[in-house]
From TrEMBL:
Gene3D superfamilies: 3.30.2010.20. CDD domains: MMP_TTHA0227_like_1 (cd12954). This is Peptidase.
């Protein structure tokens, strides 16, 4: 008796060309998404800043979101679309949030994105602690 293709032991694709193989080889690293690479760059910069200023970076929480919310915070006169700082309040630690899509859309290539992430982190840490960005990162340029 003839069986339907989905009941057979070896399932073939709809054109009968054979079993589908994985897209990536077993020995090749998987493709990194743009959001994954962005998270890795942010983590690397936070590690670098944490080594230089552990007392400033340790109490701060860092987050990455895709896009900024449409409503600005009440204390911000000129809201930035690239990042936002939230001071510590009622038992909540201070937070710095980077927005991935605006930063990626304003830069061309990985090098520019890396510098933009560094600049945003340094500016927001300086804003949080009332310091100039040059004090936190001597290589910072406006």
């Amino acid at each position: 008796m003839l069986e339907t293709p989905w009941n057979e032991r070896v399932y073939r694709n709809r054109h009968g060309r054979g079993v589908r193989t994985p897209m990536f080889g077993t020995r090749l690293p998987r493709y990194r998404t743009r959001s994954g690479m962005f998270d890795d760059l942010v983590a690397a910069h936070i590690r670098r800043l944490s080594e230089a200023w552990p007392e400033l970076v340790r109490p701060v929480q860092f987050a990455v979101e895709d896009v900024p919310p449409s409503d600005p915070a009440p204390w911000e006169t000129e809201p930035s679309v690239n990042s936002r700082v939230f001071p510590a309040d009622h038992g909540m630690p201070a937070r710095i949030v980077l927005y991935r899509m605006p930063l990626q859309s304003h830069t061309r290539g990985k090098d520019e994105l890396q510098w933009a992430i560094r600049d945003e982190l340094v500016i927001r840490l300086g804003e949080l602690y009332g310091r100039r960005p040059e004090e936190i990162d001597p290589d910072f340029e406006w």
